[in-house]
Amino acid sequence: MLSILTRPSGTFSSPNFPIQYESNAQCVWIITASNPNKVSHYDVSSVTSARAPPSCLRFLSCPAFFLLVAAKLCVFVFELQVIQINFEEFDLEIAYDTLTIGDGGEVGDPTTILQVLSGSFVPDLIVSMTHQMWLHLQTDESVGSIGFKINYKEIDKESCGDPGTPLYGIREGDSFSNGGILRFECQFGFELIGEKTISCQDNNQWSANIPICICECTARHSEIIKLA
Ligand SMILES: [Ca+2]
User: Fold this and answer.
1) Near ion ligand 1, which residues have CB within 5 Å?
2) Which domain holds residue 16?
């Protein structure tokens, strides 16, 4: 089964979701940014008035990288869009059923693989480097699970996407671009489990998932169980 997804955002899921997927399944999804050269902003630093002249707006579909209009009054910056996915649900029979995720449109090309997922642990977000991403679900001949549900959307390139803030947590920093750093703390009475600081790496992936904040009483309780 091959599905081509070209909307700016959407949702898709494994076959039969949330009922068990089939054995011996081979499913492929290719997500393509609807407008890879979207105009994401214009630089008006060289403009004397704070607003770009309305006449500039009719050039929005021009595929040029920079468009200088009316003696450099407007500079449009065309930025490549990339694909971000996040998982609403994920569970595959660990080690035997896999979801392979790759960059670009060459399905199965081992040089483009971003992640091979199985079991139930997944990254918060996965972001492509190009305007396309492929996903390949492969299941073996026995034992299934519920599969997955994925949300996807286009974001600006050189970004890892917004990973959110932990429940009962506080986030410091708001840059999701390459090199951006986010710091996390938990509200009073909650203990932080995971990384306090994560960074957006050059491959558009966060260095770790965001941490979770759990009630200290629960933390102590699990500690007691561990000790018992
Ligand atoms: Ca299986």
Assistant:
1) 93, 96-97, 139-140, 143
2) 2-34+80-156
